[in-house]
Task: structure prediction
Amino acid sequence: MKKYSKILVAFDGSELSVKALNEAIAMGKENEALEIDVVTALNPTAQISSALVYASILNELRKEAVDMLEGISEKLSVQLPNHKIKTKVLEGNPGNEIVEYADENDRDLIIMGSRGLNGIREWFLGSVSHAVLQRSHCPVLIVK
Ligand SMILES: Nc1ncnc2c1ncn2[C@@H]1O[C@H](COP(=O)(O)OP(=O)(O)O)[C@@H](O)[C@H]1O
Ligand SMILES: [Mg+2]
Result:
């Protein structure tokens, strides 16, 4: 796995996304030069007619996402103190945002879970992993 140098972890707080993150950490331990970005995408889909309510919900979600990624940053700085690590909250359709981020930031591998927080078990892949797998221009490692 040493051929990958700039990887992207798609993180939603789910068990499998933690597993994806741990996979990235394991790769980092084998490769000092590995750069790891961790992103989470906010996508408030509920139909909210009041702009004020919408803004306050969005604010709350942003705060939660920032807090979650701060925890990840700390974990990574303990596990991989000398690596180049970045975390970022994205806003919009998660599949599109993840692929766009990977393109714009020259990622050569995306790591994510097969399922996330919604977990309807009928399908093997969740909608976000399905979308990323279909649209990404780099290899995708799906953790299960
Ligand atoms: N909003 C998100 N931001 C970043 N990564 C995400 C997001 N949602 C899902 N992922 C990534 O995609 C994987 C699969 O999740 P998803 O396709 O949403 O499945 P589910 O339908 O079970 O929620 C997760 O394990 C995580 O790695
Ligand atoms: Mg999901």
